[in-house]
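Sorry to interrupt, but I need a hand with the structure work. Can you supply me with one protein entry, sequence and fold together? No commentary is needed, just the two lines. Leave the record below and I will have a look.
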Amino acid sequence: MNRIEIPFSRSFITSVVRAGAVAAFAVMLASCGDGQKQQQAGPPPPAVTVAPPVKRTVTDYDEYVGRFIAVNSVEVRARVSGYLDAVHFTDGQLVKDGDLLFTIDKRPFQNAAAQARATLAAAQSNLAFTEADYTRGQQLVKEKTITDQSFEQRSQAFRNARAAVSGAEAQVRTAELDLEFTELRAPIAGRIGDRRVTPGNLVTGGTSGNTTLLATIVSTDPIYFEFTFDEASYLRYERNSGKGADIASRGASVPVGLKLIDEKDFSHDGRMDFVDNVIDRTSGTIRGRAVFANPKGVFTPGMFGRVRVPATSPYEALLVPDTAIGSEQVRKYVLVVDAQNKTVQKYVTLGQLVDGKLRVIKDGLAPDDKVIVNGIARVRPGQAVNPQTEEQAKQAGQQPPANAPAPAK
């Protein structure tokens, strides 16, 4: 086969190479331009859920720890001395006013009562005789049959006999009272403790300080709850009470709530009934007391609890979900969306937590602000966002979790 050679000049080959390089460079520039355009466009603004603050009438509360104490507490002690004969209750049971608790041996006191009645009978017999003698003497002295001195003697005997009867009657009442004291009955209704003395032991009675303690009774329904609060709180309560506010001041009978150590809510209702008249110099606190109904006997004297006392009168406040609040060291803030759909950081002053979900905002927030309540973990101050209401977020199926943490600072 014969080869055909086509002659090319060197200048022609150089022109072809240059044209290919220019074309390749143009393609590269075009691809770089497209990448820059895509980079400049960026991702779309993140979707967030916004909602205005909730308006609600709330009351601020103060919480204090305290103890239950019995309204009435009695130490059962004997009024007469003797040997304990019987115990008529079970340790720890509930007793009613007047229930028989202990019995002391009655026989010595029965004998003393019988002797006192016999003495009274003799005194009454002597009184009858002297009264008759005195009556006869009145007639005889008129007839001058007896002297005035004899009549005075009869009068004196009559008066002495009458006094002896009064003394004998008092002895009878004392003996009968001692006999009655041999039966020890419950002076109040409540729960009795354990017996301190068993039958057969000698019980020392009387009004001195060395009498024998037999048992203790404490009332259970109603029951007191005592707690202390500081001087600043006391001043705040007193000043608010002068304005007619419903707070825990002396004599205000303010409703309070209470919860036990294993409870989450203040589900027990009571009322304030006492505030002390002095502030303790050592601790700078003052004692307050509330009263609670205790029909089931759940509250026991000495038990701990936490009481919630209204600190202000009801007022209208703005509330936001507690999860919408972020922290910046010691300061708290919320993120809101402005008119240009950009996030704005607002520092706020927090109040109490209501219903375990909503937080009272005392300062830093306006009623018409659009607060970001969901999606705050994906945005930062000054960033453009796509705000949506809760309904729109649910329809779009893009609502982020409600407990999303705030962005770290």
Summary: The CA atoms of residues 3 and 294 lie 121 Å apart.
